[in-house]
Amino acid sequence: MHELSIAQHLVEIATEAARDAGARRVTRVGIRVGELSCVHREALEFCFDIVTKGTLLEGAELTIEEIPVEVYCPSCDRVSRLESIQRFRCARCGQATADIRRGRELELDSLEVDGGEESVGVTPDSLDDRPVQLPAESS
Ligand SMILES: [Zn+2]
Question: Do 66 and 35 touch, CB atoms closer than 8 A?
């Protein structure tokens, strides 16, 4: 199950980040999910509840921000929001384009741990090989 492995990755990344931040518990995990990432929201929430059991993330809230698809049109030289993921066309002139600029995201956006908030930036690809970068600033 696709969502199950995503949820497991999220737990791994978040656990690592929380440990680095010296937190004992994660209270909220915020992720950004592009329309094209093929992630089923309810399935992910369901899996998240299961895989977080017995981890630092147990009981944490999962917030999912959905990112619409945006494509670049060379004719118009602009990025526009896709009206339907069935049709990869410029919303302005209708030209077919496969130059996707947004919508494939699958990234950890924020992490709330006990004793403050830490922002964690993870790029879509790195969700697989999970290098976690904590920004220098911390509250
Ligand atoms: Zn166009």
Answer: yes
